[in-house]
Structures are given as structure tokens and as C-alpha cells.
Amino acid sequence: MDVGIEWVYRSNATKKTTTFSSEMMPAEEALLFSKDIEKTGRVHTLEFVDDKGSRWTKKEMEKLLKEIETEPHNIAAYFDGGYHRELQAAGLGVVIYFKQNGKPFRIRKNEAMQYIESNNEAEYAAFWLLLRELEDLGVRSQQVEFIGDSQVVLNQLSGDWPAYEDKENRWLDRIEDKMEELRITPLYRPVSRGENREADQLAGQALKGEFISSRKQVGEVERD
Fold first, then answer.
1. HSE, side-chain direction, 13 A CA sphere, residue 19
2. Domain ranges of the chain
3. What topology is assigned to 73-223 in CATH?
4. pTM for this structure?
């Protein structure tokens, strides 16, 4: 969760106030900055503001972060869809990194799907599998970074590229409705296939009939 700090500074000399706003940063980091700001003795008011304009006092932010700590957060969600043209089948692979109760975890999951007509549809099906896993994980009202090697799907989801095919638009509507239901704020990050190798490998295994579903605690370095 990223927030900015809005600090109303009070001058003892002029008895006037002026407002300073920070760049967006992780909420935990913003809370540390706020404690330093308070040491100046020049705080008239100080609030934390997210990208949607929601505001919290320092006390409210501390309470919010304590609540978030017990929920899945700091979520990086990878997806990939592999397509077999002759069989009109797709292998779907997803990997989710997140923190909960101060510990890092990883979920790996794959599935196969029949009657898929294109590589782009396979990627959309993989994204849909990813959303289902996030829902099962209990992700609600969170910012999620979605990472994949499909420029088409990520740019269509972000609204940067139009979708002309009816089937693609149906997937888009389905995905957007689910994200709205879960109150997920998406961040889309395209990467190379090499950087998406975990999800790519899972998609390939699904096409071979090798199915995986796992959750484990991991070290921070394993995400890289």
C-alpha cells in the first residue's frame, strides 16, 4: 500500500501555515517519515493520502497497518498461458508472492483448459486463474502488482490498448468485474519471458498433464 504525506506546517514566527506534500511511498516508510516530521515541532496537521484520495491520521494509519499485517499483503502476482494450437488447449501457470504475519510466502498453481482459440485467450485464462487464487487467499481491498510477459493482455487490461475481438472483451469484462468485487487496485508490469520463467514453466507442465498446487514459506531472495 502506497501513500503520500500531507503536512500542514505551522510557523511560530508568522503564526501562518503552509502545506507540503510528499511523493507516494510504502505506508510503513511514510509512517517513519511522519515521526521525524513530528520532531520538528511544526506540525499543525499531518495526514496520509492514497492515490484515490482516502485519508488517515497517524493513529488511524498505525491501526490500519497492524490490521494489514495479519492479511496477505505486498502481493506480486505472476501469470502465463501456454497454447497448443493443434489441440486447442492451454496450460495456465500462476505464482503469487506475498507477506503475512511478517513472513514471506509463495503460491504456485497450474491448470489445463480446453477449447482455447488463441495464445491471447490462454493468457487471459491464466489471469483469471490468478484472480481465483487471490480470492481464495482472501485478498481484499489490496493493491496487487500483476506481472506477465503478454504485452497485449497487460496493455488491454490497463486500457492502453483497445480490444477488438469479442472474446477478448468478454474476458476483460469478467476480469474487471472480479477485481471490482475484490476491491483490488491493479498495477501492471510487463516483463520478459525469462523474468516470468516460474509461471511459464508451470504453464508448460500443465500442457504435459503435470499439475502443481503448493504454498510454502520462502526466503526473500527466492522471489528473484
1. 8
2. 2-69, 73-223
3. Nucleotidyltransferase; domain 5 (3.30.420)
4. 0.75
